[in-house]
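Sanity check

After download, print the first record. It should look like this:
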Amino acid sequence: MNTKNHDKESYRKFGIYDENDTLKSAVTWGPVGIEAVLAQFYPPEISLFLADMDVIKAREEALSFSKLLNQKRVETFFARDIIADTLKPVNIDFDMVLSILIQKADDIKAQFNTKNHKNYKEVIEELLKLDVERYGSDRGLTLNWKLSLYPLLPLGNLIYARDQMNILLSKRIRSHMKKDIRRPEVELYELCYQRIFGAEHKSIIIPEGETFEGGDAYVHDKTIYIGVGPRTSLGAALFIYRSLKEEIKAHGLKFVIVYDEFADRRSFSDQMYFMHLDTFSNPVGKKQIAVCLSEAKRRKVIVIGDSVNDPTLVHTGKTFLEYLFEDGQEIVSISESEQQTFGCNFLAVDENSIIVPLRTNKKTIEGLRDIGKNVIFADLSESTKGFGAAHCMTGQLLRQTNP
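Expected structure tokens:
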């Protein structure tokens, strides 16, 4: 897509009332760059990367993923391109920026005794040249300064474009991220959304002291589900409810919290694997949902009811799995082994078609096909190494029911 069209009036519309309505428009990060190289020199507890990502390949995957969405008639915007176009370019020298980027990599390696990343200096130089070629010298160098050198930590997780916001019903929820490395992402994506929707556009802003990340919410079968766990707080979920209360009433929706009461006691790896609602569950159609059974049995359900003043929390005593069964949902079972290779983090294009990130999740693919879904493959084998896949990579803007 030509991202220079992002000011068109037709793209100012957004709204999501069901996760399996037809996806019409979305934001993806676009061509991944040096920010993801530098982030990987930090230990996983800081970088949040699952494994060593080949960023050159991840860049190609991200561009191919957008082309695939375009083929499915989904208009996509590259946040990275819009941000590059938005930043005030500074006249700086290529060799100077390259030298500082490599020095930063060397400093991080020395500080954390990071194992040697093969040919990292050549990779950094190649990626910088690709950005200069794509954006022009001043903008390409300024962008890398903004993403990799200006922040305390390089913003390598920007590839996962859902977490910085989530559109629920007619409102955009602006996130407040839990982890230090991810917090500056929100402001950068805000530049992107202001450009798409116009400067007058306002969003619901999660207040200080609470945390919410976009992977922790979706709308399914007239129910808003919010995951409360490692990344999203109960206070943020209640704030979202209050902000959407009138619209929830108008549409006769339910508001359900999928609660991990022991999230802070879990190991770092468990907190990562089950960080968001969409890492262990994902709607696939009317009365159909894919879930990792083991996690769905752990999570408890709280239903939010209305009252004159504060919302009423109804602790059902049911697990998420029990709640889904009682609601008449057809369950596509995702094993924990395939959940940990992003079996749940697929992207529904509509009620019939699902983009899966890895061909190796054979049981997941079989389960989706068994209920009549058209499975579409996107090769995201490198992109997943930062703990995310197709669903995490897609900042959904507009879904509509088919005419």
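If your output differs, re-run the checksum step. Summary of this record's structure: Confidence is low (pLDDT under 50) at residues 1-11.
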